[in-house]
Amino acid sequence: MLRLPSCWTQQLPTPDEHSFQRATERQRVLTKPPGSLGQLEQLAIQLAGLYGCEQPTVDPVRITVFAGDHGVCEEGVSAFPQEVTAQMIANFANGGAAISVLAKQLGASLEVVNLGIVGEVPALTGVRDEQIAPGTANLAVTDAMTEAEACSALAIGDAAAERNANNGCRLFIGGDMGIGNTTSAAALACALLNRSPETLVGPGTGLDTAGVSHKSAVVSRALKRHGDNTDPLAMLASLGGFEIAALAGAILGCAARGIPVLVDGFIVSVAALVAVRQQPELRPWLLFAHRSAEPGHQAVLEALDARPLLDLGMRLGEGSGAAVAVPLLRSACALHNGMASFADAGVTDREEG
Questions:
Q1: Catalytic positions (predicted)?
Q2: Is 120 labeled as catalytic in the residue annotation?
């Protein structure tokens, strides 16, 4: 019998309504015109409700990057060769990747989880070897994963959430690494949203127009093979990747443990959409960092009713866009916690009428 991790089915906690209301009331009396700090006000209120406290803080921040290779690379859907996945895992560990630099700047912990790649990676500090298989199968011709493999990836993601919770994590960022994973994410997004590949497939690592057209045709073949099964686990196994499934497990696992998730770009948002389709009560635990330049991301954000904080034309992945947004969350909390009220500062409040 197939064994699903508990995060896939367990009831998630709900935000604390009392803390939400107290934070809303506090924002009304701070020394500023109401609404003048825009999204920063709503961020602070949301975080207060999620943490169940009057003075929220997002630190410590913990980042987990999940890595896996994709069999669909056989179809020539990426501008980079597949060995780059293994090389980038080493780059993460050696501090040379964008997310490594950003994690150091933020004072955030960073771990990398290798779920299954084609090349070999030696033992590296900060890299966990959790290989399920040497990459997924080619989703254009067969299911990318067996259901057992998908469940293993979900469980690995949930275990990462548990590690982070045990280490005092208050804000989780999930990142991705895997050559070919925008093809997998686009296929999943098309299936989840009932959209055509022509509207969601993008350049990924830098394909030209002809390359995007070919990639779209590959996704069309995958969708035709998959059929109309809308069960989230079946869709994940058929069209997903190890790292996408692990991200879904980590997102659900963090919410189950009361940890808000700052969602990165296209790949992570697709994983979040899978998780929300499985458990709709997850949605309040998600904050959205940025709008990716990958064309399918906008449709996924709309499906999640998400209002991202940044729009910088980023499409790197790794959790980099989410890391760039962390200072905004820190600022939202600092303003909420540290500003004086009108009464405290002896400043005349606005007149009603």
A1: 318
A2: no
